[in-house]
Amino acid sequence: MNPLQADNPTPRADSPAVISGVQPEQAVAALSEAAALLGQQEASDRRRRLGSLLKAAVAWVMAGQSSSWLASSLIHGGIVLALSLLMFVPPREGARLWLQGSVETAPAETLDLELETLSAAGNEMNATQEQVAVIAETGTLGTDSIVAPPRLETFETTSARPTGSLSLELHGDPLAARGGGVEGRRLENRRALAFGNGGNGASESAVEKGLAWLAAHQGADGGWRFNLKLCPECAGACRNSGVLDTTTAPTGLALLCFLGAGYTQQEGPYQETVAKGLYYLRERMVLTEHGGDLRDTSMLDKLGEQLPTFRKSGDMYSHGIATLAICEAYAMTGDEEIGRLAQHAIDYIVYAQHEQGGWRYEPKQPGDTTVSGWQLTALKSGLLGKLKVPREVWYRASEYFDSVQDDRGSTYGYQSPLKTRQSTTVVGLFSRMILGWPAHHPPLVKGLAKIAKQRPHQNHMYFNYYATQVLFHVGGTGWKRWNPQMREYLVDSQATSGHEAGSWYFDEEWSDHGGRLYSTALSILTLEVYYRYMPMYREAFVGESP
Questions:
Q1: Mean pLDDT (whole number) for 246-258
Q2: How far is CA 330 from the centre of its chain?
Q3: Rounded CA gap, 205 and 203, in Å?
Q4: Confidence class of residue 313 from pLDDT cuts 50, 70 and 90?
Q5: Which of 88, 217, 412, 448 sits a CA distance of 20 to 30 A from 122?
């Protein structure tokens, strides 16, 4: 089933050819009314022209310039045509967009997962008055209120934003119409949302300590490296360096942490840090005919008229993460230069998509679920900034996740449904939420219930990061059971001494790739979940856009 078909049903052609029992005067009146209605519709020029023609036909009939049989045929045919046009919605035009996968809607099993708004009741959700001691003086959270304000302050932007190809205001569009905005990050809103959604003083303190560690490990050129030995301020003082030599991925991850806390190049105590990071990504972007490539290329010395390049270990992972950071910076600030970079990066994601809907390491390769998840999240951020994202991208992405789903869409594999994994399942479920699955869709309910019954994994932060996001956006008992375990585990496992103070490292599979910086970034982003994105499914935010 076409994922958009539900919003654009094919009209039924069961209207009779002749309407019996209609007097000429009634028919003329009906035809006049139909023509008037056509003129009121926000329709195409073709419909407006047709309305004019129908009005002319009415006048012609009333003037007696036709035979009775011809007048009758014209009246009846005109009514049928007018009514069909009033009811018909072309299946691939217009701004409304429903992106639901082709999943059977069998009744959901009885599961211990309440899809309700998060309750503030109970000791676990009670806000505390504990102050976050390490927040810099210029970045103190702007309210002592422990109750979320009725209307959140939004980021004000003065620059003109590009017109997006998808409206953010209509319920049913991917992501934006289901919340997901960034207004919770404002310092005026952050504290209230952190305490109201399940955070506490210790978790906010851990975020600030983590940001201080990241700032201390930024390179002189503005970028970050997984290999901490390359950081002049660290020079290997911290253990557990990563081995990947890409720089756009760690730079993007670090920037996401600062942006997630509400700190931009224009606001907060880390303005210079964020500005230097964004400048670094700008310098690393290679403009091509397909858009801005952030996979981390390095230019060799100029040889004659040629500028040969070589590929480092960066790939579409790096591009997606860096694009997400740039798009978030633009959505939060409206900086026109950042907006141009963001659109270039989005264009490259659009180009790189495989014809079957996924993304992988290199452009146009058959997709895998993990790389595709980062690209979809970046595209979502593009929508928050009203950047141009062709609607066909969402069609194809939905088809890709159809191809790797199992159990009617409650579990997902890496490149096929034959071997599903927990890590790919949480990415798949989060991607389905981005693509528009409603909260009560049975496969989503079933998949989330399986996740919610687990404890956070001690050595799998990739799974923990995505699981925290999907459970937060839905809320309910599953979130309330998961959150305190995840929060306390991260608070307790943060390094407290030496040069590593404020960081995290988890000895897990592939941990040597990104090392301590990767573990630290995912931990910070997980603790920022309370305000980083507005919930997709909470009633207060459905239909809201930044």
A1: 98
A2: 14
A3: 5
A4: low
A5: 448
Mean pLDDT score, 141-151:
35
The reply to whether 184 falls in a domain is yes
Q: Is 212 exposed, middle or buried (0-12, 13-18, 19+ CB in 10 A)?
A: middle
Dump the DSSP string for 179-199: ---SGGGSHHHHHHHHHHTT-
Judge contact between 138 and 187, C-beta under 8 A. no
Q: Which of 96-100, 141-145, 185-189 has the lowest mean pLDDT?
A: 96-100
Q: How many CB atoms lie within 10 A of CB 199?
A: 24
The predicted pLDDT at position 308 comes to 44
Of the CA atoms within 13 Å of residue 98, those in its CB half-sphere come to 14
Are residue 370 and residue 464 in the same domain, yes or no? Answer: yes
pLDDT at position 296: 85
Phi and psi for 108 in degrees, rounded to 5? -75, 150
Domain end point (choices 56, 72, 87): 87
pLDDT at 474: 94
**What was the pLDDT predicted at 110?**
34
The residue written with tokens 């919610």 in the block is 452
Among residues 41, 59, 87, which one ends one of the domains?
87
Residue 105, domain member (yes or no)? no
Domain that holds residue 500: 172-532
Residue 46 and residue 177 in one domain: no
Alpha helices in 437-510 (DSSP H): 442-452, 461-474, 476-493
pLDDT digits (tens, 9 = 90+) for 119-138: 332 333 333 333 333 343 33
Here the tokens at position 495 are 């390094």
- Same domain for 75 and 202? no
Find out whether 386 and 163 touch, Cβ atoms under 8 Å. yes
Same domain assignment for residues 82 and 179: no
User: Nearest Cα to 517, choosing from 294, 277, 210?
Assistant: 210
Alpha helices in 41-186 (DSSP H): 45-62, 68-87
Instruction: Assess if residue 154 is contained within a domain.
Output: no
pLDDT at 128: 32
CB atoms within 10 A of CB 83: 14
Q: Are residues 83 and 214 in the same domain?
A: no
* Cα gap 132→127, rounded to integer Å: 13
Which segment of 108-112, 186-190, 360-364 scores lowest on mean pLDDT? 108-112
Give me the chain's average pLDDT, please.
Answer: 75
The CATH number covering residue 231 comes to: 1.50.10.20
Write the CA distances from 427 to 114, 347, 410, 413, integer angstroms: 21, 23, 11, 10
Domain count of the chain?
Answer: 2
C-alpha 139/C-alpha 128 separation (Å) is 20
Higher pLDDT, 545 or 457: 457
Whether residue 178 sits in one domain with residue 48 = no
